[in-house]
Design a protein that fits this description.
2 copies of one chain form a homodimer.
Chain A: H1 15-19, H2 25-43, E1 46-49, H3 51-66, E2 78-82, H4 109-116, E3 120-125, H5 153-160, E4 166-171, H6 177-183, E5 186-189, E6 208-213, H7 216-230, E7 253-256, H8 267-282, E8 286-288, H9 294-303, H10 306-328, H11 335-345, H12 349-370, E9 375-379, H13 399-404, E10 408-416, E11 419-426, H14 432-447
Parallel strand pairs in A: 2-3, 2-4, 7-8, 7-9
Antiparallel strand pairs in A: 1-3, 4-6, 5-6, 5-10, 9-11, 10-11
Amino acid sequence: MSLPVPVRRSYAACVPAFAEHRDTPREFLERCLEDLSVFEPTVGAFVHLDIPAARDAADAATARWRDARPLSRIDGMPVGLKDLIETANMPTQCGSAVFEGACSGRDAASVMALRAAGAVILGKTVTTEFAARVARGTRNPWDPARTPGGSSSGSAAAVGCGMLPAALGTQVIGSLLRPASYCGAYAFKPTVGAINRGGSHDGLSQSAHGPISATLAEAWIVAREIADRAGGDPGSPGLLGPHAVPAARAPVRIGLLETAGWGAAEPAARAALDAVLEALATAGVTVLRRQYHAGLDRLEHLLERATPASLALVDYESVWPLNAYRARDPGKLSAFLRERLSGAERMTPADYRALLAAREAARGAHAVVAADVDALVTLSATGAAPVGIESTGDTAFNVPASWLGAPALSLPLLEAQGLPLGVQLVGAPHRDADLFSTAAWLEALLAV
Amino acid sequence: MSLPVPVRRSYAACVPAFAEHRDTPREFLERCLEDLSVFEPTVGAFVHLDIPAARDAADAATARWRDARPLSRIDGMPVGLKDLIETANMPTQCGSAVFEGACSGRDAASVMALRAAGAVILGKTVTTEFAARVARGTRNPWDPARTPGGSSSGSAAAVGCGMLPAALGTQVIGSLLRPASYCGAYAFKPTVGAINRGGSHDGLSQSAHGPISATLAEAWIVAREIADRAGGDPGSPGLLGPHAVPAARAPVRIGLLETAGWGAAEPAARAALDAVLEALATAGVTVLRRQYHAGLDRLEHLLERATPASLALVDYESVWPLNAYRARDPGKLSAFLRERLSGAERMTPADYRALLAAREAARGAHAVVAADVDALVTLSATGAAPVGIESTGDTAFNVPASWLGAPALSLPLLEAQGLPLGVQLVGAPHRDADLFSTAAWLEALLAV
């Protein structure tokens, strides 16, 4: 299981060469497939691959770039899809025996948008069982003895080692940010509702679709190209912001979000974040801390129970779909999910309404803070990916953005134990583009 | 096509007799089936029936009542399900050739709740094609030359003539209230989100599940029993209000909602509503009119374009699902829907956001008025069911409650041309129970 050091592979960086006919989407795909041949036998990022179809699609994109008529900035981009997201030409198995071999026969809204933009669907990436906790064997490309994180395990692993420049994932607790942190990729968890989830098995109220990507720019581009074509969830305004990648802009004030993760973070991870805070201060950014900011302190207080509360909320909202899966064949649902379902079935509508009220209170407190800062900064994980592939790691740093319905980015700019670690930025709902501006500036700062 | 005069059939009225062993759910079902044998060959309310399974379920309920262990107030109640709502043991065909014979293999959240409460699923009722405009042959039990309305055509027709005491429908524009009005049944369109729509092909932002029923009490009971078990949509508090049917309570102030329908209403229909207003005034209720109430006038103004705006909003939100259906086989989508889809594909996210903003403005204006009145009153349709079964009638009176996300009831207390006509009450979001209290009082008033 000796692998080369993973390197991310950017598609956006090659677009000028496509336009000038020095490179082609087909050649790009072949480079992805070379990395795939090296890593995939060990990593197991994909549950389904269709290389011939991808080559055909890449050839069609190559012809369009040759004719100077690309469909979009992502025309020809190889992408992966978390296997919760339906595809007309591939099975959608949700990481569960319940859906083994199942084909819905339709493309999800996001997939339809990706195809319309010319993207090349290389395959379906591994998800934990129904995006919950039971892992399905994917390994971390940086160290196969470690978890890639979850639930968007395969999407993060594939992007982390250059098999793909981008892949879609979903997050309801921490399923985009944490695996991206562990695998050394970027992740964008948009404002809840910003990307249409139609045709995907992630219909919970704080779930969001988002890209895991090789670069910050590609996170924006992929999300933007999808949202332009598919819109947001019904009733949501969809992803707001410009067509172009938002330019870097220096923040004035940044709030430090400790979250319940701070106490659990490894010393090396805390030191890495401390260095970020020092760099911010040196650059003249005011870093607000809960000890000196009443609004931030109130927010932290309201976030203390965000993980158990989110889990309970997700469980209640999952009673119907899990019940429907169990009804097909109880033996095909893991013992873990059967137990979660039993617990959820004891919850009452009043229990659920109390959770909604707590979430609204936290969102209200965040709105107060968000009006006072350019972004909140924290870690994306408590440290490097843990050893073992049964657990997908600690979600404590990831849940706040999910609970708040807020946009968040994980930037693979830190390390711990010589392995990747993400720094996380959390923005105000519907101000996703501003968050990218702050992130672009932070990336330049830390690159110095 | 000579049919007897339709009579609704209440299940709730028989519950005391079940408890006292003077009647049984199985005997009740047989009485429904007698009416079914008389009406169904002409009316065509069902697209799928499973009488043997219904008899088995009714026998099981009969045994539970005999043992004084009913699962709920609706244990043994025969119900129908609009054929957008998925069922594990019956096909779900959505009124479309695209889904001919299709079985999803799972029960929708509402169906799972109904079964858990002991309800007897008699069959799937006819819907127009994907709940839009193309009718699928159902006839009005009061006059088979006339439409039953739509899109919940079969549910309203079946309940209107005693084939069922209750059936589920859905409404995104006017698909519960109008068919109930035309067929002489009650309908309850709850606050948007109040009943979990999981597993139903009505995922649009102003769509709602609701019962069409033989009595006002049964509308509450059915909705309550479902919401207690399935909750509301993810992120919604679900149906609020007591377990018991809300008691009648005299309103103090009622607002007259003219809507875009007033100009289109038949003279007989307007006269019928005028009589209601006179009865209200005689009973000491203050009836507010837009000419003398600035808030009501502003609301009416903002509702003027609610129909075209709702249609455009629904079209934009339908781009993904319709596109997915078209991709399977374009020839199986009606020319009407193909044209709607083409128009919707030309809409931009900005167009959609403008519609959302208009809807929010109308909801804001309604909140101001709702704080000042017990309910709004209007007609449920412009008159009796029109002759012909191609068109499902004019939606003008129905769209306000959909656009406002507000609870609404249609009560079959009026008539025009000797045919049923509903009086409609619209309440404040999440105050569905208060609306039932006002409705119960109005029903008693008009019965005098």
